[in-house]
Write a structure and sequence with these properties.
alpha/beta; 23 strands; five-stranded parallel sheet; about 575 residues; Rossmann fold; about 20% strand; about 30% helix; single chain
Length: about 575
C-alpha cells in the first residue's frame, strides 16, 4: 500500500530518513510536497523525510492502495501468500521443532509476542485490530494459514496437525516465542516514547512498556497555535487557569504513557447544563479513543462499569465518568475505586460478570464531569480542575467557529493534534525546562506539563487548584463561609465555632455526621475539623470583597486560669468585588 502525506505550511519536524519526494500540483496551482512511501510489511516500513512547504490547503493524510500487480508478497494476505514448508519430526527434541516452526511463522510479519512470561502471541490485522492467540485452538488455524506442515514419526508421515499439548506448550516456550518481536501496544495514532520522541511507522522499541507497533503514517507537526486558540476563545472558562488547564489536559492525553499512576484526574465542572463540559473533554481526548460510563455511588457498580468498558475497548485512552451527581443520601462525589486506580501504575481490574481478572499499565486518563455535586477531598487533591461559567442562556450563544463539539473539533482534530505536538517539540528544543513553581501531588507530571505550557506562552497552569479545592469540596467551602462571616471575632473556643456553624446553617457541611446532634457533640466535632485544617488557606466571597483566610490554632491561657485551645480565621489577602463582576 502507499501513503501520501500532504504537509502543511510552516516548519515541520519529522523523520530524517530519505525517501522519494514527489511534487504534486494542487487545484489552486501551488506546488506542495507529497511524501510517498511503500509499506512492504508491518515490520519493515520505509519512512520519508521531513520538509517545509507552502500550501493554502489544510494538511491531509490520504491512504492509496497500490497496484495489486506491484504488491510485494509480504503485503499480500496470508491466504494469497505461498505457504512456507516445514517437516516436523516427532522423534526430534521438542525445543528444536518449536524453534524451527517459530522461525517459519515469524516470516509472515504479522505475528508478535505479548509481554510477560508465557502469554502467547498476538495477530495484528492490517486494520490495526488484534487477535490474541492464547490457546491451541487459537494457534492451530494460524499455522495452517502460513505453513505447509507435515508431521513425521521416524521418517513416516503421521499427519498435518499438531497435538493440543504441543500447541499449548509452544505458546509458553521461549524456544518458540523468542522468534517474535515483543510489543506492548498496537496503535494507529502517534505515541510518545520515554524520551518524548514520536513513534515512527513500524516497530518502535522504547523499552519495556513502550514497545509500539505504529501502523499510521509519519506524524506531522505544526508550529502555530491557531486552531487551539480558536477553540479556547469560544469556551466560557471561569478563569485563565481553566483555559490553560484545558490545554494541559490535551497534552496529558498525548503523553498518557508517561507517569502511570501519577497523572491527574481531569475534573470538569460547570455552573449550568450545556456549558460545554463534554466538549472540553472531547478536545482533550483529541485523536485518542474515548469511552463513557455513568457515575455510580456504590464502588462495586462503578468498578463493574469501568472494567466492562475496558474489556469492550482495551485501546481506550480516556474514560469519562459523565454527569456525576449526588443521590439524596450522599454528601459528595467519592469513589475509593477511582482514587485507587488514579494512583496505581498497574491496577488489578476485576468485577463479577466482566470476565477474568487482569492487570494493565495505567495509560488511561480519567475524566469526571459534573454540574450538580461537590467532590471528595481525595479526588480534588488528585485533580486537574477546569470550571466553566457561561453567562446568559447557553442556547442563544453564537459561535464564530460553528458548533465546537459537532463541527469544529471533528473537522480540525488532526490540526489540533499537530499543534499540540508542536508545543512538545518547542519544549524539547528549549531544553525541556520544568515548571518548578507549580504545586500538585503528582509533581513530575505537573512540572513537565507546566514546562511545555510555559514555553508556548500559556499562563496560569493550576492557579485555580486551591480555588477549586475550596469551591468543589463541601467541607472547605463551608469553612470558607464560616471564616468570612466570623473572621473579626479573633481567638475563640470550639463551642463558639460550633454555635456559629449552626447559626449559619453549616452543620451538615462542616461537622461530621456522628457529631451533629447535641451541643457537646458539635463542640467535639468542630474541634476535630478545625484542628485537622489548621494552617490551610480558604477562599470566600462576600457581597463586597473576595477573601483569602488562614485558619490558625493556639493553645494557651488567654487571660484565663486553665490552658485550652482556641481557633481564629485571619485575612491573608482581600480584594474588592467590582459592581459588574459576574
Amino acid at each position: 500500500m502507499i501513503y501520501c502525506v500532504v504537509k502543511p505550511y510552516g516548519s515541520v519536524w519529522g523523520l530524517a530518513q530519505r525517501a522519494p519526494i514527489v511534487p504534486r500540483d494542487t487545484p489552486g496551482g501551488l506546488v506542495v510536497g507529497v511524501r510517498l512511501w511503500w509499506v512492504k510489511s508491518i515490520r519493515n516500513t520505509i519512512m520519508g523525510e521531513s520538509l517545509s512547504i507552502r500550501s493554502t490547503e489544510m494538511p491531509e493524510v490520504i491512504r492509496i492502495l497500490g497496484d495489486p500487480e506491484q504488491r510485494d508478497e509480504e503485503d499480500q494476505s496470508p491466504a494469497d501468500r505461498p505457504n512456507v514448508k516445514y517437516d516436523w519430526e516427532e522423534s526430534d527434541p521438542a525445543a528444536k521443532n518449536y524453534s524451527a516452526l517459530g522461525e517459519k511463522l515469524a516470516l509472515a510479519g504479522d505475528l508478535f509476542r505479548r509481554p510477560g512470561y508465557g502469554n502467547g502471541l498476538v495477530l495484528v490485522l492490517p486494520t490495526g485490530h488484534q487477535v490474541m492467540i492464547r490457546s491451541a485452538a487459537d494457534l492451530a488455524p494460524v499455522i495452517a494459514d502460513r505453513v505447509a506442515l507435515l508431521v513425521y514419526l521416524n521418517g513416516n508421515v503421521k499427519g498435518s496437525k499438531l497435538s493440543a499439548s504441543h500447541l499449548n506448550a509452544m505458546l509458553k516456550s521461549k524456544a518458540f516465542l523468542n522468534h517474535f518481536l515483543i510489543i506492548d501496544h498496537v496503535t494507529i495514532i502517534p505515541r510518545y516514547l520515554p524520551d518524548f520522541s514520536l513513534t515512527v511507522p513500524g516497530f518502535n522499541d522504547g523499552g519495556e512498556g513502550y514497545r509500539y507497533l505504529y501502523l499510521g503514517p509519519s506524524p506531522f507537526v505544526l508550529d502555530s497555535l491557531d486552531h487551539i486558540r480558536a477553540f479556547l476563545d469560544i469556551m466560557a472558562f471561569a478563569s485563565e487557569a481553566d483555559r490553560t488547564n484545558t490545554v494541559a489536559a490535551a497534552l496529558t492525553v498525548l503523553l498518557r504513557d508517561h507517569w502511570p499512576g501519577a497523572k491527574a484526574v481531569l475534573l470538569v465542572t460547570a455552573t449550568k447544563s450545556h456549558a460545554g463540559k463534554d466538549t472540553v473533554i472531547l478536545f482533550a481526548s483529541g485523536l485518542a479513543r474515548q469511552c463513557s460510563i455513568s457515575y455510580q455511588s456504590t464502588n462495586w457498580a462503578l468498578e463493574r462499569a469501568f472494567v466492562g468498558v475496558l474489556n469492550h475497548d482495551p485501546d481506550a485512552a480516556v474514560v469519562v465518568i459523565e454527569n456525576a451527581r449526588l443521590d439524596k443520601r450522599d454528601r459528595q462525589i467519592a469513589s475509593a475505586f477511582i482514587e485507587r486506580f488514579a494512583t496505581d501504575p498497574e491496577p488489578f481490574l476485576f468485577s463479577t460478570g466482566t470476565g477474568p481478572a487482569f492487570r494493565r499499565r495505567n495509560d488511561i486518563l480519567l475524566a469526571i464531569s459534573t454540574n450538580f455535586g461537590t467532590v471528595s477531598e481525595d479526588l480534588l487533591n488528585r485533580s486537574l480542575p477546569i470550571h466553566l461559567n457561561p453567562v446568559g442562556n447557553v442556547a442563544d450563544r453564537q459561535s464564530p467557529i460553528g458548533n465546537p463539539k459537532y463541527e469544529y473539533l471533528p473537522h480540525y482534530q488532526h490540526e489540533i493534534a499537530a499543534e499540540l505536538r508542536g508545543m512538545i517539540e518547542r519544549w524539547k528544543e528549549a531544553g525541556m525546562p520544568l515548571d518548578r513553581q507549580v504545586r500538585h501531588p503528582f509533581t513530575e507530571w505537573a512540572q513537565v506539563i507546566g514546562g511545555i505550557l510555559m514555553v508556548s506562552g500559556f499562563d496560569g497552569f493550576l492557579d485555580n487548584y486551591g480555588t477549586r479545592r475550596v469551591a468543589d469540596d463541601p467541607l472547605r467551602h463551608g469553612l470558607g463561609l464560616l471564616g468570612a462571616a466570623r473572621h473579626e471575632e479573633g481567638w475563640q473556643r470550639p463551642d463558639f465555632w460550633a454555635t456559629e456553624t449552626g447559626t449559619l446553617g453549616l452543620v451538615k457541611q462542616i461537622i461530621p455526621p456522628g457529631d451533629q446532634e447535641g451541643k457537646e457533640a458539635r463542640k467535639r466535632g468542630i474541634g476535630v475539623v478545625l484542628s485537622a485544617h489548621r494552617g490551610e488557606v480558604f477562599e470566600a466571597e462576600t457581597e463586597t470583597e473576595r477573601l483569602h483566610l488562614t485558619l490558625e490554632k493556639k493553645r494557651g491561657r488567654f487571660d484565663e486560669k486553665d490552658v485550652h485551645v482556641r481557633y481564629q480565621f485571619v485575612v491573608a489577602h482581600r480584594e474588592p468585588v467590582s459592581g459588574d463582576d459576574q
